[in-house]
Write a structure and sequence with these properties.
The protein is α+β, with helices and mostly antiparallel strands and 118 residues long. The chain is 29% helix and 47% strand. 17% of the residues are buried.
Length: 118
């Protein structure tokens, strides 16, 4: 059965939504990269996971929803999403919308996430 990047992206987002840090960590390749206007450029699973942990410590109640996940290549999917969360520090709400391209390697590990906020 060929690799399905849409299904893999949906599973990736599901473990993020569940705040399953062990499963999130397992999704990333050791040399993965993650780029976003909000966090800048991250390189390597350890740096990415540290950023995820900081983010979810600040926004532990995040609820995200995908309005679209589509295949863009044999190993990549594009997701359009929106999210709502509340800052644990300030109590202020966070509302974001954007898209991301998630690229996988042939073992199904995430090698790159490129996030753009709308």
């Amino acid at each position: 059965m060929p690799f399905d990047p849409v299904a893999a992206a949906a599973r990736f987002h599901a473990v993020i939504g569940d705040l399953d840090f062990e499963a999130i960590d397992d999704f990333f390749a050791d040399d993965a990269t993650y780029s976003s206007g909000k966090v800048g450029g991250l390189k390597g699973r350890a740096d990415i996971m540290a950023a995820f942990r900081r983010y979810f410590a600040e926004y532990p109640d995040q609820v995200a929803e995908d309005s679209l996940i589509e295949q863009v290549s044999a190993l990549a999917a594009r997701a359009v999403w929106s999210l709502r969360a509340t800052s644990a520090t300030t109590g202020y709400p966070l509302v974001r919308q954007g898209e991301e391209t998630i690229t996988f390697n042939d073992q199904g590990k995430v090698t790159n996430v490129d996030v753009t906020d709308f």
